[in-house]
Amino acid sequence: MASNAHLPAARMAEVVREFGPYPGAPAVHGVSHDGDRVWAATAAGLLAIDPASGEVQRTLPCAADAGTAFDGRHLYQIGDSQIQKIDPQSGRVVGTIPAPSGQGSDSGLTWAEGSLWVGQYRDRKIVQIDPETGAVRRTIESNRFVTGVTWVDGELWHGTWEGDESELRRVDPADGAVIERLTMPANVGVSGLESDGAGLFYCGGGNSGKVRAVRRPKRA
Asked: If 0-12 CB within 10 Å is exposed, 13-18 middle and 19+ buried, where does residue 36 land?
């Protein structure tokens, strides 16, 4: 397991916008981004949110109690210990695979390098899986509870949430070592995480029912 030793100093996360809560959606679980819209997994299903206005543009009814991902064509959504593959145009579920833990511990979800990457909350792991079969290709261990996960520009980030404290962490995909830490404000949890591919992370806010945009650190 990745060690707590020699953690880099944390910086405060810069929350630049908040959206929600939304009617019928008291909690936000997973989040994703399709290049235009933010998708949020809620009790009402998947909400497509305009990131400029914060307004819900569409709702896709489905089981949506954990992470969400987008592969450029399809959405993937963890619900009822399965990962559903969803056509975002019709809302139809076109396939399912078992979620890797099979025990409701699966939390975050993202797409990268032709694979799905699943954050496993209680197991403190990120697993890379085959999107067609669910077979595990790789396991990265953490020393914190893992919520959302995202890849952006070759960087692997995940959310943590323990007690009243949440962070966004950039980790080495080879061994899980923590490279960078962004601390969320007090009592602001991160239940899901996705990059917009540019300057922002979108974070699910758990039982707050909110989605928050956080500034991604600039690179030299």
From this structure: exposed
CATH number at residue 52: 2.130.10.10
Calpha distance 177→146 (Å, rounded): 14
pLDDT computed for residue 163 by the predictor = 86
Number of domains in the chain: 1
Dist. CA 18–CA 104, nearest whole Å: 28
Note whether 36 and 44 are within 8 A (CB).
Answer: no
Over the chain (220 residues), the average pLDDT of each successive run of 10 is 70 97 96 97 97 97 96 96 96 96 87 97 95 96 94 97 94 95 96 96 97 92
The number of residues making up the chain comes to 220
Q: Give the residue carrying structure tokens 């543009």.
A: 57
Q: Give me the amino acid identity at 181.
A: R
* Burial (CB count <10 Å: 0-12, 13-18, 19+), residue 5: exposed
- The answer as to whether 130 is a domain residue is yes
Domain hosting 48: range is: 26-215
